[in-house]
Amino acid sequence: MGIVFTVTPLYIAEISNPEIRGAMSTGFETMLYLGHLIEFSIGPYVSYEVLALISITIPIVFLIISCWMVESPYFLLKKSRYLEARKTYSGLTGIKDERVLVDHLAKIEEHINEKKSGSLKDLFGSRTYRRSLMIVLVLAIVQRFSGMSAVVAYASFIFPSTIGGLSSSSYTILFGVITLLFTFVSAALMDRSGRKVLTITSCFGSFVVELLTSVYFYLSQNSIVDTTHITWIPFATISMYAGFYSIGMGPIVTTIQGELFPPNVKGLAASIVTVVHAGSGSLVTKFYQIVSDKFGVYVSFSVFSLSCLFGSVFAFFVMPETKNKTLLEIQSG
Q: Of 140, 185, 288, 324, which has the highest C-beta tally within 10 A?
C-alpha cells in the first residue's frame, strides 16, 4: 500500500490534463472507498480467510491490467526517450499540432533538466520545496486526525447496534455507500470550484458535525439527557462527516501531492508524505479506543472536530489554489 500511495498521485498528475486533473486524482480516492465498501459488505458474513482470498483477486486483476498502462511523459523525457514521450503526450492530451506538441514537450524537458538532482538537501534546502512539503504534510495530518481511520476501524462499535430494524453492520455498509457517493460529487466539483474552496468547506463542515457528535456522546455517557430515543444521531452526524470528508479532505492530499513538487524531488517528498500520512492514521486508530475508554468517546470526537477547525483555517490562509494550472505553472510559481 505504501508504494501505491506514493506512486499513484504522482502518476495521475503527470498523465492528466489540467482541466481534469482534480477529477482524475479524486478517482484514486473513489477506488479506495469502493474497496472499503466491498470489505464492509462482505466482511460480516465470511471468515477472515475467505475475505482475504476474495480481496486478493482485485490486486491480481490490476496487475494484469497494468501491463497496458502508458508510461508518464515526464519519466520518458527524463530518460531521454523523446519519441515515446511525444507519442504518449499526444495521446494523453489530444494535441495533434506538431509545433504545439514540440513546444509543450520542450518546456517540460527544460523544467526537468533545470532540476537534475533530488536529495534531502535539495528538498529541505529550498524555501519553496519546504513550504510545499509543509502544506501537504499538514493537510495529511489534518485528514487523518479528522478521525476517518478510527471511524472506519470502529464503525460497527460507534454506530447503534439496532435501530430501525438495521444492525450495526448494515449501518457500516450505508456509511461506506455515502462515503463513496460523495467522492463522485468531489470529482465533479474539484476542477470547477477548486481545491481550496472544497477543502475549506470539507474541513469546516466536518468540524460542525463532529462537534455535534461529541456533544451527543457527552450527554449520553454522562446520563445528562435520555438519549435512548435519539440513538440515530451518531449515524446521522458521522454520515454527514463522511460526506464532507469525501468532497475535500479525502482526495485533497493525493491531488496536491502530485501537483506541488517538481520532478527532481517529487519521489522523495511523496515518500515522506506517505510515511507521515500512514503514521498519523495508525496513531489515530491506535489511540481512539484508549482515549475513548479512559476519557469517553466525546473526547475523541472533540479532538477530531478541533483538527478539522484547524484545517479549515490553514486551508483558507496557507493552501494554494492549483485549479486549471499546468504542473509547470504550479511548480514555477
A: 140
How far from chain centre, in Å, is Cα 123? 23
Residues 128-137 have pLDDT tens digits of 999 999 999 9
Please give the mean pLDDT across all residues of the chain.
89
pLDDT number for residue 117: 63
Stretch 124-148: mean pLDDT, rounded? 94
- Residue 50's contacts (CB-CB under 8 Å, 6 or more residues apart) are none
Q: Of 145, 163, 138, which is closest to residue 319 (Cα–Cα)? A: 138
Residues 6 or more apart whose Cβ sits within 8 Å of residue 37: 173, 176, 177, 179, 180
Q: Which residues of 7-38 are buried (b: 16+ CB within 10 A; e: fewer)?
A: ebbbbbbbbbebeebbbbbbbbbbebbeebbe
What is the per-residue pLDDT for 162?
46
